[in-house]
Specification:
4-stranded mixed beta sheet; 9 strands; 154 residues; alpha/beta; 2,3-Dihydroxybiphenyl 1,2-Dioxygenase, domain 1; single chain; 36% strand
Amino acid sequence: MSNEKSQTSSEVKATIEVYLSVSDARSAIAFYEKAFGATVDQLFPAEDGSDRIMHATLKAFGTVFHLSSLFPEYDGGDKMGAPSPDLPGYTTALISLHSARELDTAMSRASAAGGTVTMSAEDHEWGARYGRWTDEEGHRWAFISPRSDSGSVG
């Protein structure tokens, strides 16, 4: 057994980023521009001459997320393995905001762009304000912030 101390996940500083596969990447990009105020940082078209997007990086809320068109000819989604949102057990993306006001503003903007609010933003006994919204592609997004009357997510 090694005498080296292994780092725990709480000691490692990293960013976890969302990668979405969508049926129409160009429409999805336009939608996220409207819903989140996202801007395109990188855009790589598919190499097969189709209108599909191999990879796009978008910036929103001071961070980045990624998307691509669906590529069924690759293992279950795209080259990155990102699944379609209609697969059972699909994982929700989480947007963590600094205040209840920021959360309400973000959810209102997303809702105005389309999609469906599936859980209105509310303060919860576990110390957070939380709501959910499903975009037009079926991706489920959760929004979380400190409660309206709290300073931290508990």
